[in-house]
Amino acid sequence: MKYSKIVTLICFLFVGVSFSQTIDPLSIYRAEKEKKFDLVHTKLKVDFNFNNKTLNGEEWVTAKPHFYASSVFELDAKAMIIHAITLNNKDLTYTYDDYTLKINLPKVYKKNETFTIYIRYTAQPEKVRQQGSAAITDAKGLYFINADGSDKNKPTQIWTQGETESSSCWFPTIDSPNQKTTQEIYITVPNKYKTLSNGTLMSQENKGNQRTDYWKLDQKHAPYLFFMGVGEYEIVKDSYKNIPVNYYVEPAYKEVAKDIFGLTPEMIGFFAKITGVEYPWSKYSQIVGRDYVSGAMENTTAVIHGERAYQMPGQLIDDNVQENTIAHEIFHHWFGNLVTTESWSNLTLNESFANYSEYLWREYKYGKDNADAHLFEDITGYKNSQSEDKKLVRFQYADKEDMFDAVSYNKGGAILHMLRKYLGDEAFFEGLNVYLTENKYKAAEVHQLRLAFEKVSGKDLNWFFNQWYFGSGHPKVQVSYDYNTLEKTVTINIYQTQQNEFKFPLAIDMFQGDKRTRYNVFVDGNDASFTFGFQGKSPTLLLVNADGVVLGDFQENKVLSDYVNQLKYAQNYVHKREALLEVAKSQENKDAFEAIANAMNDDFYKIRLLALENINLVNKFSKRNVINKIKRIATNDKKTLVQAAAIETLGKLTDPELRPIFLKALESKSYTVLGKALVAMYYIDKAYAIKKSKEIPSEVKEIIKTPLTRIYLDEKDETEMVFIAKDVLSGMFLSNDKKVQALYKRAYDQISISNNTMAIQNLVNDIVAKGVEFKQFNFDKIGINLMREMVQKQNKANTANKIKNVAIIKEAIGKLAK
Fold first, then answer.
1. Domains in the chain with CATH codes
2. Is the pTM of this model over 0.90?
3. Model confidence over 189-234: pLDDT tens digits?
4. Which residues contact 708 (CB under 8 A, 6 or more apart)?
5. How far is CA 176 from CA 142, 163, 168, 506, in A?
6. At what angle do helices 671-682 and 686-695 cross, to 10 degrees?
7. Sign (positive/negative) of CA torsion 705, 707, 710, 715?
8. Which residues form the Peptidase M1 membrane alanine aminopeptidase domain (predicted)?
């Protein structure tokens, strides 16, 4: 599972599942689910009632007692109508409470004695009462999208979402990650629809205007990985070796499907190589689902992505924002699907590896700086998540959905990176091979991972796992230096200020000019010191955690000259970034300004981009040659995102002489460059910029909405309020950029006092939609408060359409309050 990273206000509005006031949910030990029975095989036949949003199902579930003999077989089945249950064509008695189906077997079955139960049922996903989470915003298992076809702008689709325990919303099963079963499924749909499920499409049978597709998976996997997808898709075919790799996309994206997903075969080959385990499944398909409840999901051989995957060429030329997610879900086919966590407490065995796969892929494909920048963003996400008190392996949690957080993902990936560096690449990847090989098609816990690494490396790793997997927090380190010019030594003092003590290997770089010496030490206590000798002049720079591997907070007292040298000589992205941002605060100093200007030549594009975003062109050192450099970058940099940053920086000068550069940028294939150029042009030639903005195709306007919104708000353009209003709430609350949040707050304020009834309607529609989608974060209450404020603004503005507008807003409040 790749969750959508919502790191703004709504992350802190989550209200958990209600529990009795007498029991603290965090005091409950969340054990692996007891295995009374083992699933063996699951066969399904399903068709759909689109009008009622229900599924008609037949199931043949084969199982056996795990160890102890039993005559009662329990299955998870949520909100279903059970029509019949038989064994060998004989009716069985049962009890059902809308959650658990208890079937009375005709005799006591012993270990390894299998039986096959037949169940005829109706699944009613709209009546499921379990709630979602921050990672998975809904949990009804089966989703009908635009089932009645009433929305002409949205296709009719069906898709499923099984994680964590929602497959039991559409077929009875033992809905636990420690179960494994083979499967067959017959899906009957109208002929116009394509279907996708796990495994291989064995046959298709037409019956009038209906067709039955038969899918089969012969290898065992967990029930939460079952998948069905239905819709009017184009299937774009690809392959890895002799394995089919297919992309299910809406017709409008057929031509760009390989631009979005086309690295999939290379990713599969790369992950097979580094693990030493060939891709273990019969195919790899990816499908894009409308209104999907998360970022993506690793259903075995049938991955589903949210609409974010859909991108146009003008976006892909800047960056494929889905690439990390594509890698993430592929790696799950080893870590999560081949070997599965035995319990949600051990979720790190699934999600931390999938998270770290993003680093591994970027390192292989784009280089270490690129991967380190991605790791830095993940670590920042963890540190900002207010999760320091959470352990990676957690046996106490309020709800299993709480495990899908920045600890299981971001921190877990960073911990694997530390373990890799400690063991070395050869031992680390061989350890992964042993873990996967010994546990394939089984469920596992973290200790089995530790034992695999110990088996390969010969090292005792209890200390590492105890502090990083079974402990919480991270080192908070104060660093100081003592120079002895007579002895020509420098002592580096490491003092940890957090409550629990960490041990960790640490890289320290000593620079004398551009000469670098690397020292690798081991910190074995809260208070440690390391002394190094040097020749000649004193070191010009010391870097602690020089490779950026240790997950921690390092505080040092550095002066401007230290940061200038750090920006010039440091090799790790995080150190360069830190130095650049510090140096940028002092650009009245000539050395500092020149350091920022020089950073625009850095080999790594994110440093160039950061330098452009932070350079101060209004101070006395802003010489013409620096501006000329930025002009060259604006037209020639190999990264369009850097070109866009250069254009934005030049735009701040509001210099008409720059018009030719902006004119050229307006013809760019990059939508980011186009958006920045429109804003830059607006401040030197408003009429031309507005004219160009009106000529942009509607589908492109939606993509570059933020810069267009800035122009239309400054112009107070009532004719564009309808366009702006469609997605104001996403900008206000779901963006990570404070400038963007402020921009859309302006849009909200301006639309709230507008006379434009259609804009008011679009805004309240957006508020209601977001309120429903993020209800578990109390976003419905936020939406109601926003709309009540809109009523007050309309009354105060006394617009001509006030009565009509207020009525629309109040009707929306009523919808959201239900």
1. 37-332 (2.60.40.1730), 344-468 (1.10.390.10), 478-817 (1.25.10)
2. yes
3. 999 999 999 999 999 999 999 999 999 999 999 999 999 999 999 9
4. 675, 678, 693, 696, 701, 720, 723
5. 17, 10, 10, 40
6. 150
7. negative
8. 263-468
